[in-house]
Amino acid sequence: MIKRQWLSYLFWTSFKIGLAVAAVIAVYAIYLDATLSKHFKTERYQAPALVYAGELRVYPGYPLQQSTLIKTLERIGYNRSNNTEQSGYYSVGNDSVMVHRRPFDFSDGPQMSKRVQVHFVNDRVASITSWPSGRELDSFRLEPELIGRISTLSKEDRLLVGLEVVPNLLIETLLQVEDRNFYHHKGVSPWAILRALVANLRAGRTVQGGSTLTQQLVKNLYLTREQTLWRKFHEAMMSLVIDYRFDKNTILETYLNEVYFGQDGRNAIHGIGLASQFYFGKQVQELSVDEVALLIGMIKGPSYYDPRRFPERAQERRDTVLKVMFDQDLIAKSTYVAAVQRQLDVRESRRLVEHPYPHYMDIIKREMKTLALPEDWQDTGLKIYTHMDVNAQEAVQKSLARKLTDDDSTLEGAMVVANYRQGTITALAGGRLSQTVGYNRALMALRPIGSLIKPVIYATAMQESGIGLHTPVVDEAITLEDKRGKTWQPQNYDTEFKGSLLLYDALVQSRNIPAVRVGVEVGVDTVVDYMKRLGVVTPLEEYPSLTLGSASLTPFAVTRMYSALMNDGRFQSLSAISSITTHQGDVLYRTPEKSTSQVFDSKVAYLTKFGLHGVVAEGTASALQRVLAGQQVGGKTGTTNDYRDSWFVAVDGEQVVTAWLGRDDNQPTGLTGSSGALRVVADYYERKPPLSVALEVPEPLKMQRFHERTGQRIPNDCGNGELLPAEEIRLPDNITCAGNIEEKSWWDRLFGG
């Protein structure tokens, strides 16, 4: 009787406890369902902003050397081979390059792989042929280089990919290795746990895990790695909830984007999309059989099977996975044998971004702050496509480093390259250490610009007063009051005065006094107004000293100002970002058509461009000609007091190139614009030849000859004077080459001779 009572008590007590436990579990499950499901749906992980350089788009007639294309292909990870049947390979002929472009998600949508042959003649693209069809193509573009990333707060890097782009072989192999019953269990597999327990007991150590893909995902997303019963229970409950609320494909896609694959410095590489780029420089859909096997094998232990640190161990693990693929009829025997015999072939670099450009990234981050991007963009990740020309950027960094290395260690510098037609920033470096984060002088260093202001002064005078390059200006001593009310007597660099000379010659020779006189005459306040219309936003003091470049601007501001001068007098903002999408390709931002404001009319803009060409052709920047190989380029040198700042701005057929050299402590450098910054630009042009600036004379201007002192129109066949563009001026009768009217004799007057 007592035994029955005891059993009854035990039964009811156990029943009540069971009900209580069930109730607690039910409440806990409801809580998990309410919180975990929402979090899993909208905040599964964070994805970085991946930043890409501008794409290389070529077309027949495009100026491109064969060696430059080869260099570009090597940099973005293409392999040279006689066999280009697979994407990611190229071959080289005498005057051609065969390229099998990888598939890539461009800013305007995904593009499939494409095989083309690019033919060259005289350092230009002669034709582009689709292979093997032989069809002539109008253009061809290469995928851009990954140049940087803006990481999340979690320091987790990933490239989100959908199941539709992941190869079926990868998915099938993953399921065979990690969770064969994935599509049949409810998030937890008791049989897998029992099977793993038996295997581990037999081996006397942990040789097999019983976790499903869902459990692995939960552990990676939400839990620590501590081995306790409570954590395992928590993991199981969360897995059941997720499996109940979400379909299997969503869970699998999340797993593929979350799984850990190693470290890039302090940043963790997550997801199959980024891992394929990190280890192979490929998109996931390009992976070969052996590459798929290696990545799946690494899931078990990314550090332990790191192919760069432990290649033998990694290859053994890869071959084990290949055996599974063969045994499960995922690959044929011939494929299996070939894959096993293949050596590991991973990228040597342990960095996802092999060539960092932190100073260019600086301007990307500044622009991002001005755009209306979603606050939760880290949920979807970003792909930021930029206007950077990697070849130009490399040339800028090398040219600047070469000059700064040749001089003492206290000399600093900055360079900016912009396409003035498109209003884009193609290259930027803010110091000698242009590959490390630091003070970005290109964007932040406010330095007096010296003679760089002279083209603006003369353009302002031509716009306001109707004068031209043929107008005589005065080069004689002048006394003015400085900003403190003291008398100021500006000097020319040679301390001499030439009396009268043409405005063109004053600009070409960079004479100070004519610039001061013209600037004061047109009004310093007027010059300041035009500078503001050219994009200058820093405060400018309206004192006469401004006419000799006392205004302090950054190299970027100088580039923006000269870009307007070259863009037919139209100002437009300069931008580095072309478009932004999510990792899945949804467009968030695309650069709108740029608005422009007409600062100088096209006639004044052309006259200014002609004068800048003269500076290089025969003036203070004539030393640049040695590297131009006959190309027409303009420019302007700039030197400030006591040789503290050395400036040079070059303008060619499409770009403005600005270089500045100086010291952060503002001490003298001993360099003029010609002996310092000009040499940096010359080195740049040796690495990246310029396009000729267009100098065809537009209507209503015509080339006419003018006396070099008086500006008097003289016959074009005279041996003296200057041949300059100007609106047509009727030639007086009997004008001499000296600019005088020759009086006719009585005989000529009588007989009309």
From TrEMBL:
Compartments (UniProt record): Cell membrane
GO MF annotation terms: penicillin binding; peptidoglycan glycosyltransferase activity; serine-type D-Ala-D-Ala carboxypeptidase activity
Pathway listed: Cell wall biogenesis; peptidoglycan biosynthesis
UniProt keyword terms in alphabetical order: Antibiotic resistance, Carboxypeptidase, Cell membrane, Cell shape, Cell wall biogenesis/degradation, Glycosyltransferase, Hydrolase, Membrane, Multifunctional enzyme, Peptidoglycan synthesis, Protease, Transferase, Transmembrane, Transmembrane helix
Record field: catalytic activity: [GlcNAc-(1->4)-Mur2Ac(oyl-L-Ala-gamma-D-Glu-L-Lys-D-Ala-D-Ala)](n)-di-trans,octa-cis-undecaprenyl diphosphate + beta-D-GlcNAc-(1->4)-Mur2Ac(oyl-L-Ala-gamma-D-Glu-L-Lys-D-Ala-D-Ala)-di-trans,octa-cis-undecaprenyl diphosphate = [GlcNAc-(1->4)-Mur2Ac(oyl-L-Ala-gamma-D-Glu-L-Lys-D-Ala-D-Ala)](n+1)-di-trans,octa-cis-undecaprenyl diphosphate + di-trans,octa-cis-undecaprenyl diphosphate + H(+); Preferential cleavage: (Ac)2-L-Lys-D-Ala-|-D-Ala. Also transpeptidation of peptidyl-alanyl moieties that are N-acyl substituents of D-alanine
Active site: 178 (proton donor), 451 (acyl-ester intermediate)
Superkingdom of this protein's organism: Bacteria
Record-stated family: In the N-terminal section; belongs to the glycosyltransferase 51 family.
Protein name in UniProt: Penicillin-binding protein 1B
